[in-house]
Write a structure and sequence with these properties.
Layout: H1 3-15, E1 24-25, E2 30-33, E3 38-46, E4 49-56, E5 59-64, E6 78-80, E7 86-88, H2 98-111, H3 116-120
Antiparallel strand pairs: 1-2, 2-3, 3-4, 4-5, 5-6, 6-7
Helix pairs in contact: 1-2
Length: 124
């Protein structure tokens, strides 16, 4: 099986009650629609090579591992916020498994799609 198919199955198993529809698996991505209005798109090539993007209403966020931004403590992974800011990634780690990263992101987004609780806590 492919990584995206495996991850889609895990999302459906662990987050099924929160899904609006089954996870859509594309050639190089998976797309999940959650009942709280979040749409998540994940493109994961390896533990240290991924893009996880989500939208909630007009707000769009993205975590990726492009090897840029040496000033950030989480380099290479970093967060692009809805207001266009770039910050350290508060959710994923390049030494974690793809499932561990996705699970952490989804768990956070179900309760806090705009990452306001993380921002309030001073983590972004």
């Amino acid at each position: 099986m492919s990584l995206h198919l495996d991850l889609a199955a895990q999302i459906e198993e662990h987050f099924g009650p929160h899904l609006e529809s089954p996870v859509d698996v594309k050639y190089d991505a998976l797309i999940a629609h959650f009942s709280n209005g979040v749409t998540l798109e994940a493109r994961i090539a390896a533990s240290d090579a991924y893009t996880i993007a989500w939208s909630w209403g007009e707000a769009e966020f993205r975590i990726d591992t492009a090897p840029l931004h040496p000033e950030l403590s989480t380099r290479p992974n970093h967060l692009h916020t809805a207001d266009g800011r770039l910050s350290a990634d508060p959710l994923t780690r390049t030494d974690a498994s793809p499932w561990s990263n996705l699970q952490r992101v989804i768990t956070t987004l179900i309760d806090d799609p705009l990452l306001e609780k993380l921002t309030t806590a001073g983590r972004t």
